[in-house]
Amino acid sequence: MIVLDEFCASHQIEVSYIHSLEQHGIIQTIIVDKKTYLPADELSHLERIIRLHRELDINPEGIDAINNLLFQIETMQNEINDLRNKLRFFEE
């Protein structure tokens, strides 16, 4: 886990922005001994969100919509791969 304050300082973002993302259900944080932490598995996701916010000036609502669309695309790609594998099985 990464301390939220340290992450924000190193990425030069406000802690309030992370809390806003959490309120929209985009990321999750963990509070231990009155300190807020980011789970390590959230880091790559959060860094992508920060890039979208900085480079394209996308608000949390827009980021949520983008995340939902990306999830749908990933789900469809997995389904396509499964169907291709089944087709190959029946072609042999």
Notable features of this structure?
92 residues, mainly alpha, Multidrug-efflux Transporter Regulator, Chain: A, Domain 2
* Rg for CA atoms: 18 Å
Mean of pLDDT = 92
Count the domains. 1
Helix content: 55-70%
Q: N-to-C SSE series?
A: EHHEEHH
What distance lies between the first and last C-alpha atoms, to the nearest angstrom?
47 Å
Major sheet: arrangement of strands: 1-3-2
Query: DSSP helix count?
Result: 4
How is this structure best described in words?
This protein is mainly α. The chain is built from 4 helices and 3 strands; from the N terminus they run E-H-H-E-E-H-H. A 3-stranded antiparallel β-sheet has the order 1-3-2. A hairpin with a 2-residue loop joins strand 2 and strand 3 (35-38).
What's this entry about, in short?
The chain is mainly α. 68% of the residues lie in helices and 10% in strands.
Q: How would you summarize the topology of this molecule?
A:
Blueprint: E1 2-3, H1 4-11, H2 15-23, E2 30-32, E3 35-38, H3 43-56, H4 60-91
Antiparallel strand pairs: 1-3, 2-3
